[in-house]
Amino acid sequence: MAIFGNLNHMSLDDLLPFISSRDGALELFNLKRLPQITLFFQKGKLICVYQGNKPVDALQARSIIGELIDARKGGFEFMPKAKPKSCPEALNWPVDRLLISITTTSDEFAQLADRFPHPETVFKLAKDTAPDDTRLADFWKQTHEYLKKGTSAQSLAGRLGMPLDHTRFYLLKLQQLGAVTAVRNSQEKPSTKRTGAAARLLKSLKKHFFGEDGAWSH
Amino acid sequence: MEPLKIVIAGPVGAGKSTIIRTLSETEVVDTDAFASEDIGKKTTTVAMDYGTLHLGDQLLYLFGTPGQDRFDFMWDVLSEGALGLLLLIRGDRPEDFVPARRLLDYITSRHSIPYVLGVTRQDQPPVWEPEEVAVFFGVPAERVVGLNAKDPRSAIGPLLRLLELLIENK
Questions:
Q1: pLDDT average, residue stretch B81-86
Q2: Residue of B129, B167, B168, B170 for testing the chain A interface, max A β-carbons within 10 Å
Q3: What is the pLDDT of residue A101?
Q4: Is B94 on the interface with A (CB under 8 A)?
Q5: Weakest-pLDDT range from A57-61, A141-145, B33-37, B151-155
Q6: Chain A residues near residue B140 by CB distance under 8 angstroms
Q7: CATH number (domain holding residue B161)
Q8: Cis bond before residue B126 (omega within 30° of 0)
């Protein structure tokens, strides 16, 4: 039996429940934003994800599945019994739970898109403990060394090879949890020249708006 | 004496142009244009507002930045070398708080610039009070000042607070 087709007619979330009961590999190709992707299934679980010829880690795998769920261009073919050559970190994600999780993330992603932080806003860690949510914990593990020093969604997207909007989404979620916070460079000590200028300006403004005694109450 | 610069930023309709007109001694240079999308008012600033105050030998520039995201390059241009940042928000429009916090995060994470938040429309309740806004933005309460942008003695309040904090090195 040959299982093949186009994502234009059958999206990944239509396909996965059907595929997941079989052992083998689902190859996806001619995708708009991704190179060839291969998903390996065994006993109802997603075991491994390959991008090209290489296995990816859990964080990249989530990101790729998220992209594939939305993809409407690209072909697919299922190869029964195919196994990965190597898989250093087996995912073992039950497909039914993965679908719910990815769909929830996808809905949340669309809902929050207009609140994503600016790509160049610099964030730093506010807590040194990983969040409970598995999706966020994977992202946190991969990024917390960078976040200790301060980094942006743009920079993380480049380092992790993830779509920029995905790193913006994760940073927003971590910010909402209080796990990261935007860096405030204003906390740096100002120069004596600046404080001197500020003192002169303050005196002049008070005099200008409140008269000689400069009485401003607040 | 070297001129000093204060940047006034905030979402569309926060009152940036109004506060600059209230405080400026000279004719305000603005670049308002008819809004091409529904932003709740007919015109909006598309490049910047600019006003000045002469205080003895000291010249103070007030620059208002456009509120829309697509002008974010102006936030960087105007923040460079500025003495401080006043982020204005309308206290009766909580829907603007998230984009305003995003703007504050962007500017203060990229520039070493002291800031205060000004919450307008304090004379027109119901309105969020400065203490409540401080909690939402996660900033110290002392950095948030309520004001009426049309009253010079009220409008100058956030700038005075900004300078006090700068002097106290807070």
A1: 93
A2: B167
A3: 79
A4: no
A5: B33-37
A6: none
A7: 3.40.50.300
A8: yes
Burial, A72: exposed, middle or buried (Cβ in 10 Å; 0-12, 13-18, 19+)? exposed
The CA distance from A65 to A73, in Å, is: 14
Q: Are strands B58-64 and B49-55 parallel, antiparallel or unpaired?
A: antiparallel
How many domains is chain B built from? 1
C-alpha to C-alpha distances, B116 to A142, B99, B106, B146, B158, nearest whole angstrom:
34, 16, 14, 11, 7
> A218 and B145: CB-CB below 8 Å?
yes
Per-residue confidence in pLDDT tens, chain A, 218 aa: 578 899 988 888 788 878 878 899 999 999 998 999 999 999 989 999 999 999 999 889 988 998 898 888 999 999 999 999 999 889 999 988 887 777 788 788 888 998 999 999 999 999 888 898 888 898 999 999 999 999 999 999 999 988 999 999 999 999 988 899 999 886 667 788 889 989 999 999 999 999 876 666 65
Distance to chain A for B32, nearest Cα, Å: 25
**How many CB pairs lie under 8 A apart between chains A and B?**
101
Q: Given an 8 Å threshold on Cβ–Cβ distance, is A202 in contact with B164? A: yes
Q: Do A107 and A155 fall within a single domain?
A: no
Measured in degrees and rounded to the nearest 5, phi and psi for residue A94 equal -60, 130
**Chain B residues with beta carbon closer than 8 angstroms to that of A121:** 102, 105-106, 109-110
Q: Which domain holds residue A157?
A: 116-186
Gap from A60 CA to chain B (nearest CA, Å): 26
Is A92 in the same domain as A173?
Answer: no
